[in-house]
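Thread: "does anyone have the structure for this chain?"

Original post by V.I.:
We have the sequence but no experimental structure in hand. Need at least a predicted one for the grant figures.
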Amino acid sequence: MSSPENRPLLDDIEAAFKKLGWSYERLTGEGEHGGSLLLNLPEADCLVELFGDGRLACQFGVDMEEMRNLLTGDQTEDMADDELVRVARYHLKAVVDRYRAALLREGLEETAEATPDHYAIVFQTVLDLSSPQQVAHKVARCLLALEGPAR
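Reply from O.Q.:
Generated one for you, tokens below.
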């Protein structure tokens, strides 16, 4: 679907989110995604975003520059990128392990994403945006999965 087709669908889903009292931010997007709705979850360990192409993503991530600074401090030596990714993966594992089983039970698939700027473990699925109530229900189930584990 192209973004003009998705905008009305996101509008309907946005209305459903408002009805539920969820706090979110509407992000505009270029190209086929047509923007997204980013849920505001101040206590969460991850970002939850619904894209205009129907993708629901729960992203656990770290900023690679921040990670590099934490690990090397004022030292002039630099860490190799592969070593930095390994440390980032290890760092996120402890957080993600608390939620993995519940998110997989909800039908989300786990992937990893590494760029020079960030490393993320992403759980995602594709939803049918033509049914705002079903989308809100699926998002609610994912939010419950993120609230479930004891901290």
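V.I.: this helps a lot. Residues 3-19 form the longest helix (17 residues).
O.Q.: and The first strand starts at residue 24 and ends at 27.
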